[in-house]
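Dear Dr. H.,

I hope your travels went smoothly. While you were away I took the liberty of generating a structure for the chain from your last submission, since the lab meeting agenda had it listed for discussion. I wanted you to have the full record in hand beforehand rather than looking at slides cold. The sequence, exactly as received, is reproduced here:
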Amino acid sequence: MPDGVLDELDRKILAHYQRDTRISVEKLGAEVGLSAAAVHRRLKRLRDDGVIEAEIAVIAPAAVGLPLTCIVEIDLDREGTSELDGFAERMRGCPAVQQCFYVTGQFDFIAIVVVADMAAYDAFTRAYLLADANVKSFTTHVAFSRIKTGLALAIQAG
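The corresponding predicted structure, in token form, is as follows:
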């Protein structure tokens, strides 16, 4: 992979593999026109190079007692490097935060928070937002339903 560029076969492998990481290398090879050994080598290289960041199970939140998703827009008072890094680190360390983005625009961060109920969300806001003197304000949007979720990318081959 010279200069971090993915070739067409890498992209084909990734397009299939991101939808089902349990696919056998034999079947994946048949899908993209490579031997199982070649697919195995490419997957190893893609993992080693950090292109494949993780291979995880996607779990239905309601099935494990976490049916409430809140999208939270967070505005900080001070936006120095240490304040931004500190807030980001606290979000990374919070189990209820499924995703968090440092963004442009009216707010500094947008967090996706998944909890059991409003009491759990209130506990999150008290511990991570209201207790942080640098959080100027936050706005919460409660999701009525999950229309589309996931991390799959629209990978174009060649």
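Two observations you may find useful: The beta strands are 68-76, 97-102, 109-115, 135-142. The domain at 2-48 is CATH 1.10.10.10 (Arc Repressor Mutant, subunit A).

With kind regards,
E. W.
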